[in-house]
Specification:
This protein is α/β, with parallel strands linked by helices and 313 residues long. The protein contains 10 helices and 14 strands. Strands 8-4-1-2-3-14 form a 6-stranded mixed sheet, sandwiched between helices. A 5-stranded mixed sheet has the order 11-10-9-12-13, with helices on both faces. Strands 5-7-6 form a 3-stranded antiparallel sheet. Helix 5 packs across helix 10 and helix 7 runs parallel beside helix 8. The protein is globular.
């Protein structure tokens, strides 16, 4: 997926110097500085969250342990050295958004009205009142490729923005975890030009994305009932492989990427290998982002946040 297409998503991360990411495991913060045309990671911090303190859904930002989350964000921003009114990018859980791909003949309309038609189609799939529904659509260059739509609650998204603003950040970008990772993969080079699988697994949600030539051709998201059950995770990965072979005529992956916690990596990675016959790689930090002296475990956990910071400069 190319950077040009991804500018159509939530908001462009250009110039962000701080990234704040929410997952069910931790709050992650990162800060970069631009020097002589290069972007350097100056600090990266994670603050773990207690089990059950963060439980996002389509209709709720998930701040169950409000004080715990507020204190974690406060500590993260203090440790990374975020200055007042720093330009910030926020990574939100996939669980707060609904992804859908439409064949272009399903949403044919005049250019000025096509986004409205996509929004109308998405409204039927989401439980929000019309005034609360927001839909972002991304259109490919080729008429053979599907249109990507992302639907979400304006109130839920605003809750995340307000967290950043409450601590003085200038929130200029909000992105889901999977879309942030796809931004990073879009700059990864030739290895992502064929069929690529991206698995984003969190104990409370999971998203399986297949891209072809850099554009999504399948994207499926699941809630805690699947993500928290290893048997269900294995089943859905296998189902995605069947769909890829039978419906998308897939034969061999150019690459497979997996972003999840370290304890889950081997298990979920084996699930991918067994049906796609490809060992997944960890999502890497963007090549243009200079990283030195950061523990590997923390850097791996922060991949979505680092992808946005790497894209924004």
């Amino acid at each position: 997926m190319t950077p040009g297409f991804l500018r159509r998503f939530f908001l462009e991360p250009a110039g962000a110097e701080v990234a704040l990411e929410f997952s069910s495991l931790a709050v992650v913060g990162a800060r970069v500085e631009s020097r002589r045309g290069k972007v350097e990671l100056r600090s990266l911090v994670t603050e773990p969250l207690g089990e059950g303190s963060f439980a996002p859904t389509l209709e709720d930002p998930g701040f169950v342990g409000r004080e715990e989350i507020r204190d974690a964000v406060k500590r993260v921003l203090a440790k990374v050295g975020a200055m007042p009114m720093a330009r910030a990018a926020i990574v939100v859980p996939d669980a707060v958004a609904r992804f859908r791909l439409f064949a272009q003949d399903e949403v044919q309309a005049e250019p000025k009205k096509r986004d409205e038609l996509v929004a109308f189609r998405m409204q039927k799939l989401l439980p929000f009142a019309a005034g609360d529904l927001r839909v972002i659509s991304a259109w490919p260059r080729s008429s053979a490729e599907p249109v990507l739509a992302i639907g979400f609650s304006a109130a839920v998204l605003a809750a995340y923005e307000q967290v950043g603003e409450a601590f003085g950040l200038d929130v200029g970008s909000v992105e889901t975890s999977t879309m942030a990772l796809l931004r990073g993969l879009g700059t990864a080079g030739p290895s992502t030009s064929g069929d690529v699988l991206l698995v984003r697994h969190d104990p409370r949600w999971m998203t399986l994305t297949l891209t072809r030539g850099g554009w999504p051709v399948s994207i499926r998201s699941f809630d805690e009932q699947v993500a928290g059950n290893p048997d269900e995770v294995r089943k859905e990965i296998a189902s995605t492989a069947v769909f890829w072979r039978d419906r998308l005529a897939g034969t061999a992956l150019a690459a497979a990427f997996l972003h999840c916690s370290d304890p889950s990596f081997d298990r979920v990675g084996q699930d991918v290998l067994s049906v796609f016959e490809r060992t997944p790689e960890r999502v890497k930090t963007p090549a243009n982002l200079l990283v030195a002296g950061i523990p590997g475990a923390i850097e791996r956990q922060a991949a979505p946040a680092l992808a946005l910071l790497g894209m924004g400069h």
